[in-house]
Write a structure and sequence with these properties.
Length: 401
């Protein structure tokens, strides 16, 4: 690591401040750099201003996820091929058509459910890949029905009427993208690990890089949301009209801004800026306050869209659109699974894993109980709509809606 004197970074600003206050030399006013209005951070190194923001690894993983999504809709995909894209070849990423995504240390599975029941949840993700390749794909020539995997109006369903790609990817939104941001990169456990606080305060940079380790970790959290956006300096970091949003958190974050909570994009973007700026000036209380905003606001994305797809299921099922209902309920299932990775600002999920898995799969339930969402062919509306104990009420109560 190399030590850059922090005063050197703000010397021009300090000089202006001293000139402005020279009439009162006995009571100088400290001058603190002003936070930028966009996620742009630079520092002077060897006489030149250098960009200090870096999150290329996150962009790589998000691109890998997009290719895996396509493979999970391709009946020719083998379990081996899917496993390779998800978990790598044991030492590096592998299996992608885009060669730039292969041979890296960036592996989706290694960052999935890293902080909540890791082994148990990873087994579920692995099982979905195996089920698609071995049970669903070989039966797509037939019609899906209760107990029979197959095709239903273009939707690829398992024997329980579930669409595997939706279960997998809506669950990955929480277990991968959201979890890495709010339960890892913007938390003190990551940011203050080892000597990072002292090093950041002293302005010690990573060897060969223009940022402190703490700055970089915050940027990596930023990257799991904005990593595929071409211009993060415009529109509060949202993708431009017509630009791809990818298949994970940004896709639904943008939808929440448009459909449920206008202004959430500005709030989260400004909190990311405030937290990064606070790190640069070594104000760790302000950093953590910004992190709390990000945790609670991004968690809402999961709650909003779990409810959205539950309501969409009810509408489609009620109108006789059975295949569409299965599709929507599959999306709802994934968002419900993702609720375990939310963060209420106090580092607890809005709904705990045991409650969710009791309903989704019967995990931890007494014999003959739970697993209300396990068989879509026999789904009972009461488990969704009951005003006291239905899933929608459970979500509303958890988020205070």
């Amino acid at each position: 690591m190399k030590n850059i004197n922090f005063l050197k970074l703000i010397a021009p600003i300090v000089l202006l401040g001293l000139l402005a206050s020279c009439s009162d030399d006995n009571d100088p006013t400290p001058v603190v750099p002003v936070a930028p209005t966009t996620y742009t951070f630079e520092r002077e190194i060897d006489g030149a201003m250098v960009n200090t923001v870096s999150y290329g690894g996150q962009t790589t993983r998000l691109m890998q996820a997009d290719e895996l999504y396509s493979a999970l809709n391709d009946a020719s995909s083998s379990e081996t091929a899917l496993d390779l894209m998800f978990g790598g070849d044991g030492s590096a990423s592998a299996g992608f058509a885009n060669e730039l995504l292969n041979g890296t240390s960036k592996i989706i599975r290694s960052k999935t459910s890293a902080y909540t029941s890791t082994a148990t949840n990873l087994a579920i993700f692995d099982g979905w890949l195996a089920e698609f390749a071995n049970d669903v794909a070989p039966n797509l020539g037939g019609t899906a029905s209760a107990g029979v995997a197959g095709n239903l109006d273009g939707y690829q369903l398992n024997a329980d009427g579930q669409e595997i790609d939706q279960l997998f990817f809506k669950s990955l939104i929480g277990a991968f993208a959201l979890d890495q941001i709010i339960n890892n990169y913007i938390t003190p456990n990551q940011l203050d690990s080892g000597t990072r606080t002292a090093d950041n305060t002293a302005g010690i940079l990573e060897e060969g890089d223009p940022y402190t380790t703490m700055e970089h970790k915050w940027d990596e959290g930023f990257g799991y949301l904005y990593g595929q956006v071409a211009d993060v300096e415009s529109n509060f970091g949202l993708p431009a009209e017509g630009e791809s949003t990818g298949n994970l958190l940004m896709k639904y974050f943008k939808k929440v801004e448009e459909n449920y909570e206008p202004g959430i994009a500005e709030s989260v973007y400004n909190a990311f800026i405030a937290g990064r700026h606070a790190i640069t000036i070594a104000d760790y209380d302000a950093r953590d306050a910004a992190a709390t905003t990000i945790k609670t606001e991004l968690s809402k994305v999961i709650g909003y869209y779990a409810k959205h797809y539950l309501n969409d299921y009810m509408t489609k099922a009620g109108s006789g659109n059975i295949s569409g209902a299965h599709h929507s309920l599959s999306e709802a299932y994934g968002f419900i699974f993702s609720l375990q990775f939310t963060n209420d600002g106090g580092d607890s999920p809005y709904i705990d894993r045991s409650t969710l898995m009791y309903a989704l799969s019967g995990e931890g339930a007494p014999a003959g109980m739970g697993a209300y969402f396990a068989d879509f062919h026999n789904m009972q509306d009461i488990y969704i709509t009951d005003p006291q104990q239905g899933m929608i009420a459970l979500i509303d109560n958890a988020f205070g809606w």
